[in-house]
Design a protein that fits this description.
Blueprint lengths: L1 H11 L16 H4 L17 H15 L4 H12 L8 H10 L2 H8 L5 H9 L3 E3 L2 E2 L12 E4 L12 H6 L7 E4 L4 E4 L5 H4 L5 H8 L2
Antiparallel strand pairs: 1-2, 1-3, 3-5, 4-5
Helix pairs in contact: 1-3, 3-10, 4-5, 6-7
Length: 209
Amino acid sequence: MQKEQCRVCRRVGQKLFLKGDRCFSPKCALLKRAFPPGPESKKKRSAASGYKIALIEKQKLKNWYGLREYQFKAYVKGVLAERGKIDDIANELIKRLELRLDSTIFHMGFAKSRVTARQLVNHGFFLINKKAIDIPSFAVKKDDVITIKESKKGKGIFKDIATQLKTRAIPTWIELNKETLVGKMKGEPTLAEILPPAEVSVIFEYYSR
């Protein structure tokens, strides 16, 4: 899994920060091998066609959120179906992706990557409004309260959580008590705040072909 995540970044020629802290270290594969994987890898990247550019941007965002093609496509198509009713479809797509429970757990600092956050959600580590939720795609909303199950707080993955959270910047749409580890959704994320690693408008063009 880890090698494949590195190959994704090398393939699109950009850091997507899929492996948490390792991506910020000298061990980052993109720093060591700044060329695409494969036998022709060391050749210069050729000029891309409009279609290939759109494909690469789609791959960037899909992999940044760690989604399968059918999952990502469903989000894009869902937003496109409401075109005309939504002022900014790029902002709406990012908002829906960011309001997934796994993305929210990642931003709260309970996991170092979205992949880890998804695993924790799948294993039933969290409660929303005191109800156990183990669906990574669950859409959280304003005023939802998110907590770690008491029975899970002693797990090794949370051993240094208090120290980690001291330096962790929490997004404006999340209110987190770093002592009690209780989070509350106080707003919604925006495209301007997230600054995704891809040109979102091009992605809509890709799926509109």
